[in-house]
C-alpha cells in the first residue's frame, strides 16, 4: 500500500502515575549525658606543646576461659580403645593371610600330584621306548624245552 493511504488507528497513550515521596518527620535531637564523665588528661610533648583530651581506655579483650583439663583416665581409655581396634584389625588381616596361604599351598600340592601322576601314567602307558628287564621269546623256550639233547 502507499504510505499516504494507510488506514488511521487510534493510539492510546498511558502516562505513569507518580508515587508521592514518603513524608519524613525529623526526630527531635535529645542530648544524652554519658553515664560517667571521663577524665581530661593533659600531655606535655617533648617540644613543649601541651595536648589536652579525654583518656580512652584501650579495648580489653574478653578473658580467655581456661579449657577444662582432660583427665588422664579419659585419654588412657581412648588410646586403649584405638589400640584394641588396631589389634583386632591386625588379627583379622593375619587370619585372612593365613587362610589364603593355606589355600595356596593346598593348590600347589594338588598341582604337584597332578603333574607327578601324569608323568607316572605316561611312563606306564607308553608302548615305545626301552623296557627294563629280560625279554623272553616264548616259542624258542618251548622248543628248547621239548628238544632233548643227548
Distance between the termini: 156 Å
Q: The biggest beta sheet, please?
A: 2 strands, antiparallel
Sheet-strand content, in percent, reads 5-15%
| Count of beta strands | 2
Helix content: 40-55%
Strand order across the biggest sheet?
1-2
Runs in which pLDDT lies below 50 for 5 or more consecutive residues are none
Shape call? elongated
**Based on helices, strands and strand pairing, what is the structural class?**
mainly alpha
Mean pLDDT across residues: 79
Count of DSSP helices?
Answer: 2
- Rg: 58 Å
**Order of H and E elements:** EEHH
Q: What report would you give on this structure?
A:
The chain is mainly α and about 150 residues long. The model has no long low-confidence stretch (mean pLDDT about 80). About 40% of the residues lie in helices and about 5% in strands. It has helices at about 70-125, 140-145, and strands at about 40-45, 50-55. The radius of gyration is 58 Å and the shape is elongated. The longest helix is centred in the middle third of the chain and has 54 residues, at about 70-125.
Give me the secondary-structure topology:
Blueprint: E1 40-44, E2 50-54, H1 72-125, H2 138-146
Give the gist of this structure.
The chain has 150 residues and is mainly alpha-helical. The protein is 42% helix and 7% strand.
For this entry, give a set of tags.
single chain, 150 residues, 42% helix, 7% strand, elongated
